[in-house]
Amino acid sequence: MNAPVTIKIGEKSIDLPVKAGSVGPDVLDIGKLYAEAGVFTFDPGFTSTASTESKITYIDGDAGVLLYRGYPIEQLAEHGDFLETCYLLLNGDLPSAAQKADFDYRVTRHTMVHEQMARFFQGFRRDAHPMAVMVASVGALSAFYNDSTDVHDPHQRMVASMRMIAKIPTIAAMAYKYNVGQPFVYPKNDLDYASNFLRMCFAVPCEDYKVNPVLARALDRIFILHADHEQNASTSTVRLAGSSGANPFACIAAGIACLWGPAHGGANEAALKMLSEIGTPDRIPAFIAKAKDKNDPFRLMGFGHRVYKNYDPRAKIMQRTLQEVLSELGVKDDPLFDVALELERIALSDPYFVEKKLYPNVDFYSGIILKAMGFPTTMFTVLFAVARTVGWIAQWREMIEDPGQRIGRPRQLYTGAPRRDYVPLGKR
Ligand code: CMC
Questions:
Q1: Rounded to two decimals, what is the model's pTM?
Q2: CA–centroid distance, residue 167 to ligand 1 (Å)
């Protein structure tokens, strides 16, 4: 703990304790401010507010650093696999070989979903957005697995966590299959996590399906890169929902709902839609001009980040993965990729984007890779949700297991009407 900071409010001097993290900026503890000085702080968008203490993920946005439990994302993406990353995020350390084998086995044993879920799906319209189906069906897990909804029981918390990590790819693949009108494909437990997911999405009963290992590795890497990102909007949503004691399936469904928005996980879908709308490289300058126009709400999707103001380290890895996937699939003359590459080049050299530090983010590249793999744009955010589920769970568990945990309840600056008397309808 560093020396407290003294602030003056009116005639009153108040000492605010300063807490130091292991790395990163110190925080002023304002928890007693209202009791002592009768004022709140005001920070819509939480740009200067730490909502929690956490040991899971660290980001240094200026240096372009992302660490999971201290390990750089580049090393995990290069040498690790997704389930190892899940173990790390959930437990705090990398697993030994025996721990990894046990964890992989336990996740694998939970991949099937209750058969009744298949009938639950029949209630959706075929043309429903798969994210709508995800929000509903992950929320519905609490109805199917109500033996693991007691948040005060550590065993039930563990079972619910394993179930969600294991079942989310199965549900995501079902959302896709339902949408395209093909039969659901059951998980195959001798495949790794990403290969299994590809198979559940793209296999059909009338043909053998052979997983392409380059695509499986690329997808596994996409999952690693999206696994956690400290207190982003959807994670904060999960924590806030969980702070009331809501069951974990309901909390993750809330996170999925938040992720859907185009400023968050929906950006990969929005980025690809934008590339299609641009269509050809000669139309890029018009779109750049729109993005710069203060009177036009248009933004270049897949560019900019609240935290990364140097570069997004995930985007760099994604850019390399994109090249691997395109060369494996022999994609050469796709106009969409030409537009993407040219847009990246122009935006990186345009003073507006350079001065505002607007770099391509992870979603700019992930959408292009997923399209090349054969996923429709509506599935992009679903894949993000598959990957982020472990991060949400790790953060939710950290919160529930904190003995000082309280319900999250922000305050407000009220600017509405002061007290006034009700006027009967006939007199208004
Ligand atoms: N295109 C054009 N201008 C932009 C963009 C963009 N993509 N992003 C930010 N700006 C401008 C913005 O107009 C503002 O300009 P000024 O200072 O002149 O008013 C300035 O840059 C700062 O923007 P901001 O909205 O205050 O920044 P923020 O931190 O609140 O927003 C963001 C971050 C990611 C929501 C935003 O950059 C954005 O909307 N990007 C496009 C959507 C996107 O790609 N989102 C995915 C984020 S990465 C995945 C994830 O974590 O979910």
A1: 0.92
A2: 33
Nearest to 85 by CA among 229, 241, 266, 237: 229
Q: Is 326 exposed, middle or buried (0-12, 13-18, 19+ CB in 10 A)?
A: middle
Distances (CA, A) of 136 to 84, 140, 340: 28, 6, 33
Task: Give yes or no: 305 in active site.
Answer: yes
Average pLDDT over residues 368-396: 95
Residue 199 in contact with residue 211, Cβ under 8 Å? yes
Q: Predicted confidence band at 30 (pLDDT cuts at 50, 70, 90)? A: very high
Write out pLDDT tens, residues 341-376: 899 898 889 999 999 989 888 888 888 899 999 999
Q: Is 150 a catalytic residue?
A: no
271 Cα: distance to centroid of ligand 1 (angstroms): 13
pLDDT tens digits for range 192-235: 999 999 999 999 999 999 999 999 999 999 999 999 999 999 99
Ligand 1 environment, Cβ below 6 A:
229, 232, 263-265, 267, 291, 299-306, 356, 358, 361-363
pLDDT bin (cut points 50, 70, 90) of residue 246 is very high
Give the closest residue (by CA) to ligand 1 atom 50.
264
Index of the ligand 1 atom closest to the CA of residue 384: 52
